[in-house]
Specification:
The chain has helices spanning 3-7, 11-17, 36-46, and strands at 69-76, 80-87, 92-105, 122-139, 145-164, 170-190, 194-212, 215-216, 220-233, 238-246, 248-250, 261-270. By secondary structure, it is mainly β. The radius of gyration is 20 Å and the shape is elongated.
């Protein structure tokens, strides 16, 4: 046990058990009110509504040829994601992404219409950016099936704060920077108006400069298997789609809370077919 954990016995509880239930959020979420229903459903399915690790939308660009360039935007259960990808050749590509999110949740249990100004809101915030490279090749000739693998690196930051009303408003918090290395094999099917992809992202997520309840905690790293299914449809150059993904920890105790289930809804634009 580290010195900080010995001095602050609530460190592990703060890291893993902050915001354990899913009361209805009172303030707005990044991504708009339309995302609220999706968020509540994901909390019910995934458990853990105050993660410090938020898996981002899995990259599935489905580039068709060298010179292809596309950008995309997505509303997710954690916030907003943006992607970009470019094919350097028919087989080699580069990818990049940025994600951010913010949510507040009222702990006020007073009757509707009562003044809750003195009751602090729980909150969670995160931001993350990453870059990577990809390699793909066609499978079975003109069938529309392609095999692809991506690998990359990203850095981010996350914070979560909760207040326990039953203990007099006691506050617990967790905050830290994190690094993620990932390798992601997958396959996709592209027949013009319909595109389907499956990818299995292996992510090693390591938190550093980690603090719980104001006390410095030891660095924490863990490996996750993050399978994702993506379905898109629409006329070129714009396609609309939905993605669902899981975060499955591999090995022992993770040491921090994480988003277990993610839904992403958005659109992608093929710039090379516009200009």
């Amino acid at each position: 046990m580290s010195t900080s954990e010995a001095t602050h016995p609530s460190v592990n509880r703060a890291v893993q058990n902050i915001w354990p239930d899913c009361r209805t959020p009172r303030a707005s979420l990044t991504g708009g009110a339309a995302l609220l229903v999706v968020l509540i459903a994901a909390c019910a399915l995934g458990g853990g509504c105050a993660p410090v690790y938020h898996p981002t939308t899995v990259h599935t660009p489905m580039l068709r040829e060298g010179g292809a360039v596309q950008v995309g935007g997505f509303a997710t259960t954690s916030g907003l994601d943006a992607h970009a990808a470019a094919a350097l050749t028919d087989r080699v590509s580069v990818i990049g992404g940025y994600a951010q999110g913010e949510a507040e949740q009222s702990r006020c249990s007073a009757p509707i219409g009562a003044d809750c100004a003195e009751v602090p809101d729980d909150r969670r915030r995160h931001r993350f950016g990453e870059v990577g490279v990809g390699y793909q090749r066609s499978l079975h000739g003109p069938s529309g099936f392609h095999g692809v693998v991506h690998a990359g690196y990203g850095r981010g930051w996350a914070e979560v704060v909760t207040h326990h009303e039953r203990t007099g408003g006691h506050e617990e918090s967790a905050e830290g920077d994190y690094h993620r290395f990932f390798v992601q094999p997958g396959v996709f099917f592209d027949r013009g108006a319909l595109q389907v992809a499956h990818a299995s992202r292996l992510s090693h997520v390591r938190f550093s400069a980690f603090e719980a309840n104001g006390a410095r905690a030891e660095d924490r790293g863990h490996l996750f298997w993050e399978p994702a299914l993506t379905i898109r449809a629409g006329p070129d150059p714009i396609v609309f789609g939905v993605q669902s993904s899981l975060a499955v920890p591999l090995g022992g105790d993770v040491g921090y809370d994480y988003q277990r289930f993610t839904i992403s809804v958005g659109a992608q634009l093929r710039l090379n077919e516009v200009f």
